[in-house]
Fold this sequence. Notes:
Layout: H1 2-34, H2 41-58, H3 71-93, H4 102-122, H5 125-148, H6 151-177, H7 181-184, E1 205-207, H8 217-222, E2 224-226, H9 227-249, H10 251-261, H11 263-268, H12 273-295, H13 310-320, H14 325-343, H15 346-353, H16 361-369, H17 373-390
Antiparallel strand pairs: 1-2
Helix pairs in contact: 1-9, 1-12, 1-13, 1-14, 2-3, 2-4, 2-12, 3-12, 5-6, 9-10, 10-12, 13-14, 14-17
Amino acid sequence: MILQGLFDVLFNGLSIGAVLLIAALGLAIIFGLMGVINMAHGELMMLGAYTTFVVQNAFKPLADTPLFGLYIFVALAAAFLVAAAMGLFLERQVIRYLYGRPLETLLATWGVSLMLKQFVRSVGWSMAIGIGIFALLFWGGQAILKRKIDWQRLKGRALTILLPLSSAIALITGFLLNNNKALAKPWFSARNIDVTAPGWLRGQAINLFPEGMADNALLKTIFSVPSARLFIIALTVLCLAGTYWFLQRSAWGLRIRAVTQNREMSACLGIPTDTVDALTFALGSGLAGIAGCAVTLLGSVGPNLGSNYIVDAFMVVVVGGVGKIIGSVVAAIAIGTMTYLLGSGNIPLWMTQLSLNETLQPVFDFFSFFATTSMAKVMVFALIIVFLQIKPAGLFPQKGRGAEI
């Protein structure tokens, strides 16, 4: 029926838009507020998904108890912390040296994304121990040397010795441990992993109508929606509200907005701009981790998870207007609805039901050609290119002094 198809388009478009928005929300902060093109954002989502998988396995002894259904909330917190910690590390060790050079940040973060993919495919106990030894020797050695020597004067010489020495010891240790098959076995490998959703989110549909109207079988069929997608929509709303409150109502949010508008003046007023940069990047990365946790409720995930979302996430940010969260909301819902509408094949189906397929044969053939997910993305991308020719600054362009920089 056309009514059921229309509701499916609206709801599934909204749910796809929610997934895109939760993926793009962190990117809107990093790219929109900091001007950093973070190509590793999708891999931060991947880390959130794998963190969810690990937390689920930790809860497996409780599989026969009601407590197992609560693992998703622990996973959300853990995914946020793991992705935020990786984002903080990335900002401190790579991004802080590349501010104001967007092409360099693009290339650097693209390299980081490749390393994170390979890390997930290959990581086992031997690699984890080797990385731990390197971190202990390299950063622990720096901490000791800073107390013993004139670090600023001898920093270059110290790092010249410390880096290759730590790397050599870590590599030799890793190679020796690889002789043990149990230690060399990858934790995840290149295969996709499946995360079991809690029972209260698995295979259940919720009727959106009150009890009296829910007795109508037709309305119950049309307006029954999967609980997992409703959970993702609710999670997106909470993340959006929390991000808005943090940026608009908290003291650190005020500092972030001040540094975004005028870094030099903010530094003169005593705002620690380095700390603000680190906090902003960690916040955006943590939101990517939450997005990865949410994606596990929709199906299996793997090392290439980030590649499936990074382009769409950037499209949401650019179409909505760089740095405008409300623009990202509108763009995510519009792109999600359009993608599902074209890719689901509903338009040719409706035209057939209305006997318009012969009268409007060229239109029918056009929408039939794009009635697949991959071709729908091609059409949406083409429409976005046309839209940006008309409004290159997006739906909600920046105004004032910040737009002139």
